[in-house]
Write a structure and sequence with these properties.
This protein is an alpha+beta fold.
Protein backbone atom coordinates (compact mmCIF):
# COMPACT_ATOMS: atom_id res chain seq x y z
CA UNK A 1 0.00 0.00 0.00
CA UNK A 2 2.87 2.41 0.76
CA UNK A 3 3.89 2.69 -2.90
CA UNK A 4 0.28 3.46 -3.91
CA UNK A 5 0.01 6.16 -1.24
CA UNK A 6 3.19 7.79 -2.55
CA UNK A 7 1.96 7.50 -6.13
CA UNK A 8 -1.39 9.00 -5.20
CA UNK A 9 0.14 12.09 -3.56
CA UNK A 10 2.39 12.58 -6.58
CA UNK A 11 -0.63 12.28 -8.90
CA UNK A 12 -2.38 15.01 -6.91
CA UNK A 13 0.30 17.50 -7.96
CA UNK A 14 2.95 16.25 -5.53
CA UNK A 15 2.10 18.66 -2.69
CA UNK A 16 4.51 18.96 0.23
CA UNK A 17 4.03 16.22 2.80
CA UNK A 18 2.93 18.62 5.58
CA UNK A 19 0.33 20.24 3.30
CA UNK A 20 -1.07 16.89 2.19
CA UNK A 21 -1.07 15.58 5.78
CA UNK A 22 -3.16 18.54 6.97
CA UNK A 23 -5.65 17.93 4.17
CA UNK A 24 -6.30 14.34 5.27
CA UNK A 25 -6.25 15.16 8.98
CA UNK A 26 -3.02 13.50 10.10
CA UNK A 27 0.42 14.70 11.15
CA UNK A 28 3.37 14.93 8.78
CA UNK A 29 5.09 12.18 10.77
CA UNK A 30 2.05 9.90 10.48
CA UNK A 31 1.82 10.45 6.72
CA UNK A 32 5.51 9.67 6.37
CA UNK A 33 4.94 6.44 8.29
CA UNK A 34 2.12 5.50 5.89
CA UNK A 35 4.23 6.22 2.83
CA UNK A 36 7.22 4.25 4.14
CA UNK A 37 5.05 1.24 4.94
CA UNK A 38 5.73 1.42 8.68
CA UNK A 39 2.01 1.64 9.42
CA UNK A 40 -1.25 1.56 7.47
CA UNK A 41 -3.80 4.37 7.25
CA UNK A 42 -6.72 4.23 9.63
CA UNK A 43 -10.25 3.91 8.29
CA UNK A 44 -10.89 7.62 8.91
CA UNK A 45 -7.71 8.59 7.06
CA UNK A 46 -8.64 6.44 4.05
CA UNK A 47 -12.07 8.04 3.92
CA UNK A 48 -10.43 11.47 4.06
CA UNK A 49 -8.32 10.52 1.03
CA UNK A 50 -11.62 9.78 -0.69
CA UNK A 51 -13.52 12.87 0.49
CA UNK A 52 -10.72 15.39 -0.04
CA UNK A 53 -9.02 14.07 -3.17
CA UNK A 54 -11.54 11.66 -4.72
CA UNK A 55 -9.35 8.62 -4.08
CA UNK A 56 -10.66 5.18 -4.90
CA UNK A 57 -10.32 3.42 -1.51
CA UNK A 58 -10.41 0.05 -3.26
CA UNK A 59 -7.34 1.05 -5.29
CA UNK A 60 -5.51 2.34 -2.22
CA UNK A 61 -6.13 -0.93 -0.38
CA UNK A 62 -5.49 -3.44 -3.13
CA UNK A 63 -4.44 -1.75 -6.36
CA UNK A 64 -7.69 -2.90 -8.03
CA UNK A 65 -9.53 -0.46 -10.31
CA UNK A 66 -8.63 3.16 -11.02
CA UNK A 67 -6.71 5.48 -8.72
CA UNK A 68 -9.39 8.18 -8.68
CA UNK A 69 -12.73 9.10 -10.15
CA UNK A 70 -14.56 5.88 -9.23
CA UNK A 71 -17.69 7.83 -8.38
CA UNK A 72 -17.87 9.19 -11.94
CA UNK A 73 -17.30 5.72 -13.33
CA UNK A 74 -20.15 4.30 -11.30
CA UNK A 75 -22.56 6.85 -12.76
CA UNK A 76 -21.66 5.71 -16.29
CA UNK A 77 -21.11 2.00 -15.69
CA UNK A 78 -23.75 -0.71 -15.89
CA UNK A 79 -25.35 -1.46 -12.54
CA UNK A 80 -23.91 -4.97 -12.51
CA UNK A 81 -20.31 -3.70 -12.40
CA UNK A 82 -20.26 -1.71 -9.16
CA UNK A 83 -21.97 -1.76 -5.79
CA UNK A 84 -22.22 1.02 -3.22
CA UNK A 85 -21.09 -0.64 -0.03
CA UNK A 86 -22.37 0.92 3.23
CA UNK A 87 -20.06 1.76 6.09
CA UNK A 88 -21.40 1.44 9.63
CA UNK A 89 -20.49 3.53 12.66
CA UNK A 90 -19.76 0.39 14.67
CA UNK A 91 -16.40 -0.91 15.82
CA UNK A 92 -15.86 -4.65 16.06
CA UNK A 93 -13.61 -5.12 19.03
CA UNK A 94 -10.51 -7.26 18.68
CA UNK A 95 -10.45 -7.30 22.46
CA UNK A 96 -13.14 -7.34 25.10
CA UNK A 97 -16.01 -5.97 23.05
CA UNK A 98 -17.54 -2.60 22.35
CA UNK A 99 -21.13 -1.48 22.30
CA UNK A 100 -22.55 -0.83 18.85
CA UNK A 101 -23.64 2.80 19.21
CA UNK A 102 -25.14 3.35 15.78
CA UNK A 103 -26.61 0.76 13.44
CA UNK A 104 -27.25 3.20 10.58
CA UNK A 105 -24.74 3.45 7.71
CA UNK A 106 -22.79 6.70 7.78
CA UNK A 107 -21.44 6.61 4.22
CA UNK A 108 -21.17 4.50 1.08
CA UNK A 109 -18.12 3.56 -0.98
CA UNK A 110 -18.20 2.15 -4.50
CA UNK A 111 -16.48 -1.20 -5.04
CA UNK A 112 -16.30 -3.35 -8.13
CA UNK A 113 -18.52 -6.42 -7.84
CA UNK A 114 -15.85 -8.63 -9.38
CA UNK A 115 -13.37 -7.58 -6.69
CA UNK A 116 -15.81 -8.65 -3.96
CA UNK A 117 -16.68 -11.90 -5.72
CA UNK A 118 -12.99 -12.72 -6.09
CA UNK A 119 -12.71 -12.41 -2.31
CA UNK A 120 -15.51 -14.96 -1.97
CA UNK A 121 -18.09 -12.37 -0.98
CA UNK A 122 -21.65 -11.64 -2.02
CA UNK A 123 -21.37 -8.04 -3.32
CA UNK A 124 -24.88 -6.94 -2.37
CA UNK A 125 -24.47 -8.19 1.21
CA UNK A 126 -21.03 -6.75 1.97
CA UNK A 127 -20.41 -3.72 4.16
CA UNK A 128 -17.52 -1.77 5.67
CA UNK A 129 -16.65 -1.41 9.33
CA UNK A 130 -13.47 -1.09 11.33
CA UNK A 131 -11.86 -2.87 14.23
CA UNK A 132 -10.29 -1.72 17.46
CA UNK A 133 -7.89 -3.50 19.79
CA UNK A 134 -4.91 -5.78 19.30
CA UNK A 135 -6.20 -9.27 20.11
CA UNK A 136 -6.37 -10.26 16.42
CA UNK A 137 -2.83 -9.22 15.54
CA UNK A 138 -1.21 -9.84 13.13
CA UNK A 139 -4.29 -10.73 11.06
CA UNK A 140 -6.21 -7.57 11.98
CA UNK A 141 -4.25 -4.55 13.27
CA UNK A 142 -5.93 -2.00 15.52
CA UNK A 143 -8.23 0.42 13.69
CA UNK A 144 -8.32 -1.63 10.49
CA UNK A 145 -10.88 -1.12 7.76
CA UNK A 146 -12.66 -4.43 7.18
CA UNK A 147 -15.04 -5.74 4.54
CA UNK A 148 -17.64 -8.04 6.09
CA UNK A 149 -19.97 -10.32 4.12
CA UNK A 150 -23.31 -10.47 5.94
CA UNK A 151 -24.48 -13.38 3.79
CA UNK A 152 -21.96 -15.73 5.43
CA UNK A 153 -23.53 -16.51 8.79
CA UNK A 154 -22.81 -20.22 8.91
CA UNK A 155 -19.71 -20.50 11.07
CA UNK A 156 -16.89 -22.47 9.42
CA UNK A 157 -13.91 -23.70 11.38
CA UNK A 158 -10.85 -21.46 11.21
CA UNK A 159 -12.44 -18.40 9.62
CA UNK A 160 -12.74 -14.91 11.10
CA UNK A 161 -16.22 -13.54 11.83
CA UNK A 162 -17.87 -10.53 13.39
CA UNK A 163 -20.13 -11.69 16.22
CA UNK A 164 -22.76 -9.82 18.19
CA UNK A 165 -23.07 -11.05 21.78
CA UNK A 166 -25.61 -9.01 23.70
CA UNK A 167 -24.59 -5.40 23.07
CA UNK A 168 -20.98 -6.27 22.26
CA UNK A 169 -19.56 -6.62 18.77
CA UNK A 170 -16.50 -8.89 18.52
CA UNK A 171 -14.19 -9.99 15.73
CA UNK A 172 -12.77 -13.45 16.46
CA UNK A 173 -11.57 -16.62 14.78
CA UNK A 174 -14.01 -19.56 15.05
CA UNK A 175 -12.78 -22.91 16.31
CA UNK A 176 -15.19 -25.86 16.44
CA UNK A 177 -14.32 -28.57 18.95
CA UNK A 178 -15.00 -32.29 18.73
CA UNK A 179 -17.51 -32.01 21.59
CA UNK A 180 -19.64 -29.54 19.59
CA UNK A 181 -18.52 -26.46 21.51
CA UNK A 182 -17.47 -23.31 19.70
CA UNK A 183 -14.35 -21.42 20.78
CA UNK A 184 -13.90 -17.79 19.81
CA UNK A 185 -10.14 -17.33 19.77
CA UNK A 186 -7.71 -14.45 19.35
CA UNK A 187 -4.78 -14.61 16.93
CA UNK A 188 -2.54 -12.58 19.24
CA UNK A 189 -1.08 -15.37 21.37
CA UNK A 190 1.39 -13.03 23.05
CA UNK A 191 -1.52 -11.04 24.46
CA UNK A 192 -2.80 -14.11 26.35
CA UNK A 193 -6.42 -13.28 25.58
CA UNK A 194 -8.80 -15.86 27.05
CA UNK A 195 -10.70 -18.21 24.76
CA UNK A 196 -14.45 -17.60 24.87
CA UNK A 197 -16.28 -20.91 24.72
CA UNK A 198 -19.93 -21.44 23.83
CA UNK A 199 -21.55 -24.77 24.70
CA UNK A 200 -23.63 -26.43 22.00
CA UNK A 201 -26.83 -25.22 23.68
CA UNK A 202 -25.50 -21.64 23.86
CA UNK A 203 -24.26 -21.29 20.29
CA UNK A 204 -27.68 -19.97 19.34
CA UNK A 205 -27.04 -16.99 21.67
CA UNK A 206 -24.41 -15.81 19.20
CA UNK A 207 -25.50 -13.57 16.35
CA UNK A 208 -23.14 -13.97 13.41
CA UNK A 209 -22.94 -10.55 11.76
CA UNK A 210 -20.84 -11.88 8.89
CA UNK A 211 -17.46 -13.17 7.80
CA UNK A 212 -14.47 -10.87 7.45
CA UNK A 213 -13.26 -11.24 3.87
CA UNK A 214 -10.82 -8.32 3.60
CA UNK A 215 -8.64 -6.32 6.02
CA UNK A 216 -6.51 -4.11 3.78
CA UNK A 217 -5.40 -7.55 2.57
CA UNK A 218 -7.29 -10.89 2.70
CA UNK A 219 -7.12 -12.16 6.33
Amino acid sequence: MASRLRAFRKAMGDPERDEFARAIGVSKTTLASYERGESEPTASALLQYQKTYGANVQWLLSGEGEMTGLGAQVAKAPERDFVLMPQYDVRASAGNGLIAVNQMPTSETAFERKFLRDLGGSPDRCFLMWSTGDSMLPSIPDNSLMIVDASQTQVDHGRIYVFSVGNAVLVKRANWRMDGKLDLISDNLAGKYPVETFDANRVEDLVVVGRVIFVGHPP
